[in-house]
């Protein structure tokens, strides 16, 4: 085929995506002088990607299938705005051959491979068959057409347990189940198929030998329409949770130079088998000795920035140049590896509540400066809302340094300097990962996070003297600012000290823990704080985002955010969430509601796992909800009897709605 029909110069680019990746693509496209068009759903009117683009067009309702997955509307948006090319980002339609085909049919340049290459490599089964022929090493398994139960279970027996059941069309770790014995096979297939059907509209499965304690190593490739194909070194993405990457780095700290060349050569061979055009990733698992091909992603990947930082190449720029029909600007021997880069994915989720997605308005969004080797790719701003409809990734933080140790140190520092409020994020969990001695020592495998979960999600330390004093300082600071804001307030005249008071007592608590009391003494001399038996001299100097607190002669910096009575502090000892118990507030102990079996977020009931009247142990599964594309199983909060089920499979339920009632059995 004449490739000039597919790849040619264009001036207006439509980005068929949202969030962080849409912002990332827009930035480079604009720097290259292109006009950019954003598309959005009804839930995304006021988002960052819409604000960044030159033009924007509404696709439809919030649900992805009515908006970001609606091919017709996307093509129409391109036509209406005069866009000549489409960048699909990742996720959504990025690996959808029909979409690439629809773009071509509408006369648009699709920034990516051809529909044919996508069809060949997009399905895990198809690509494995191809790689087998090309002589690329594979994980042993079954990737045939026949999908009946007998065939699948015979294949599983033949491969030998443990095995992995995988959705051929899968991505993001979904539609995948580890099976350790024949008895577990059937239920695993049923649930993997259900998840795959819902997520990808395709429930074909393949079966693979499960490599125990593996590492994930992948190679970035890029090809042009003139027959050039380059590998841009490898990334290691072994730190995963539920088969989904959490931390990625480049180069792999596990490989030596010879192994690096072997895996990169295998990747070039894999992509070469389809004369690949565009950016892509060849993924492998490694048992510590050899690497085995698992899949190709025919698109840009979330973790592409680590490759950019060690090669100095802007991958989006190269994608666009390839789409213009240009030849790649460098030869293989001109690609240099420089230093080390590490990336962390920042999600709106609660690691202490089984990583439940968190939705709401971002009230505080403070990111570190992008200096000293730090880069932040964000898709949200302060005041933006995180909706339950899409992926919960908010941003990525990436650090570069000459060595791995320093890159990790810089990344951790960046994470520590990030303050996000209004929603729950995984930042403390990421910090715990980056400081874990086994991560520092690269003594990890893909099961590491699951095994170390207790350590990684440990509750924050109890507030000490410094934090209690900082809490008092934060309250005072806030009151002073409020007073300054009100012109006629008597507080302005008298500062924050009500006339005649010489002492003020404060109480704080963490969660439902005990109250901790602090007495503030002030008068003509320097103020002091009394905690228990100790009396401490202190001074406070307000600054941006917090204050400097000098306590007993030692000055330290405190970041503080106050939201009503909730204080959020970051001191040299870590992050602290405190509740200020207002003596005049007349507070009562709030209902926790944790015993209620209710929808934590809006979702769809996909399975009911227990019958009314059943005796349940504590933790017994009751029903499964699909929330933000992930399955969440709701369990019995205590041992008891399942009194009633208030929903059925297929119900769409709103947040907080009670779905089942369990009566405690009374032990
Ligand atoms: P994979 O996990 O498929 O090997 P990546 O690591 O590149 O590949 O992750 C792709 C994932 O990114 C998708 O499966 C999806 O969950 C997530 N994603 C898709 N679109 C977006 C988006 N706009 N913003 C943030 N995350 C997204
Ligand atoms: P996805 O499209 O969801 O990214 P992959 O096939 O890339 O699916 O698998 C996701 C992750 O699952 C891999 O990064 C790896 O950690 C793990 N995995 C995949 N295949 C195997 C296997 N055969 N043995 C062990 N782990 C595997
Ligand atoms: Mg993958």
3D architecture notes:
The chain is of the alpha+beta class. It folds into 5 domains: 109 residues, 3-Layer(aba) Sandwich (Rossmann fold), CATH 3.40.50; 70 residues, Dna Ligase, domain 1 (2-Layer Sandwich); 242 residues, 2-Layer Sandwich (D-amino Acid Aminotransferase, Chain A, domain 1); 116 residues, Glycoprotein, Type 4 Pilin; 68 residues, RNA polymerase II/Efflux pump adaptor protein, barrel-sandwich hybrid domain (OB fold (Dihydrolipoamide Acetyltransferase, E2P)). It contains 18 helices and 39 strands. An 8-stranded antiparallel sheet has the order 14-13-10-11-12-15-22-20, sandwiched between helices. An 8-stranded antiparallel β-barrel has the order 24-25-26-27-28-29-30-31. The protein has a 5-stranded parallel sheet with strand order 3-2-1-4-5. Helix 4 runs antiparallel to helix 5 and helix 12 packs antiparallel against helix 13. Bound molecules: adenosine-5'-diphosphate (2 copies) and magnesium ion (MG).
């Amino acid at each position: 085929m004449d490739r000039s029909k597919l790849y040619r110069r264009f001036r207006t680019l439509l980005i068929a995506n949202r969030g962080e990746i849409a912002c990332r693509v827009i930035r480079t496209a604009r720097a290259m002088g292109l006009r950019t068009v954003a598309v959005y759903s009804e839930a995304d009117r006021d988002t960052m990607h819409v604000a960044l683009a030159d033009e924007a067009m509404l696709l439809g309702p919030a649900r992805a299938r009515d908006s970001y997955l609606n091919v017709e509307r996307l093509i129409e948006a391109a036509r209406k705005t005069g866009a000549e090319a489409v960048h699909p980002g990742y996720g959504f339609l990025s690996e959808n051959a029909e979409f690439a085909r629809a773009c071509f049919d509408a006369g648009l340049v699709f920034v990516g491979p051809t529909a044919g290459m996508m069809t060949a490599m997009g399905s895990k089964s198809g690509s494995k068959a191809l790689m087998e022929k090309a002589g690329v090493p594979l994980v042993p398994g079954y990737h045939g057409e026949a999908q009946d139960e007998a065939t699948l279970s015979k294949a599983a027996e033949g491969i030998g347990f443990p095995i992995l059941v995988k959705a051929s069309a899968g991505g993001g770790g979904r539609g995948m189940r580890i099976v350790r014995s024949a008895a577990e096979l059937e239920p695993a297939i049923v649930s993997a198929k259900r998840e795959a059907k819902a997520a990808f509209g395709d429930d074909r499965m393949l079966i693979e030998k499960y490599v125990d304690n593996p590492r994930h190593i992948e190679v970035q490739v890029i090809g042009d329409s003139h027959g050039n194909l380059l590998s841009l070194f490898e990334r290691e993405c072994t730190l995963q949770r539920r088969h989904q990457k959490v931390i990625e780095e480049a180069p792999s700290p596990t490989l030596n130079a010879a192994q690096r060349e072997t895996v990169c050569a295998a990747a070039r061979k894999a992509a070469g088998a389809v004369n690949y055009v565009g950016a892509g990733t060849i993924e492998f698992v490694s048992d510590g000795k050899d690497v085995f091909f698992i899949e190709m992603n025919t698109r840009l990947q979330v973790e592409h920035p680590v490759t950019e930082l060690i090669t100095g190449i802007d991958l989006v720029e190269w994608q666009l140049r390839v789409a213009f029909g240009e030849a790649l600007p460098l030869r293989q021997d001109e690609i240099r590896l420089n230093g080390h880069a590490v990336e962390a994915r920042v999600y709106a989720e609660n690691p202490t509540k089984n990583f439940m997605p968190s939705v709401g308005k971002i009230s505080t969004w403070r990111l570190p400066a992008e200096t000293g080797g730090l880069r932040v790719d964000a898709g949200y701003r302060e005041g933006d809302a995180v909706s339950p409809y899409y992926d919960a990734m908010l941003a990525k933080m990436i650090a570069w340094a000459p060595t791995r140790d320093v890159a990790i140190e810089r990344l951790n520092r960046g994470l520590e300097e990030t303050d996000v409020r209004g929603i729950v994020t995984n930042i403390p969990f990421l910090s715990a990962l980056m400081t874990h001695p086994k991560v520092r020592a690269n003594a990890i495998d893909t099961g590491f996070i699951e095994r170390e979960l207790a350590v990684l999600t440990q509750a924050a330390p109890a507030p000490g003297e410094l934090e209690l004093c900082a809490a008092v300082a934060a309250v005072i600071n806030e009151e002073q600012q409020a007073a300054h804001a009100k012109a006629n307030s008597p507080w302005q005249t008298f500062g924050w000290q009500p006339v005649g008071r010489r002492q003020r007592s404060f109480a704080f608590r963490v969660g439902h823990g005990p109250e901790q009391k602090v007495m503030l003494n002030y008068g003509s001399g320097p103020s002091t704080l009394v905690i228990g038996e100790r009396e401490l001299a202190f001074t406070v100097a307000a600054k941006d985002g917090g204050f400097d607190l000098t306590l007993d002669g030692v000055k330290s910096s405190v970041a503080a955010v106050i939201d009503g009575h909730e204080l959020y502090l970051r001191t040299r000892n870590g992050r602290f969430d405190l509740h200020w118990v207002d003596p005049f507030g007349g507070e009562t102990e709030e209902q926790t509601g944790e015993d209620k079996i209710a929808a934590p977020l809006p979702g769809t009931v996909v399975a009911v796992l227990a019958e009314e009247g059943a005796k349940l142990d504590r933790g017994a599964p009751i029903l499964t909800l699909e929330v933000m594309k992930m399955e969440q199983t709701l369990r019995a909060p205590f041992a008891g009897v399942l009194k009633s089920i208030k929903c059925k499979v297929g119900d769409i339920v709103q947040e907080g709605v009670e779905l089942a009632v369990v009566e405690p059995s009374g032990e």
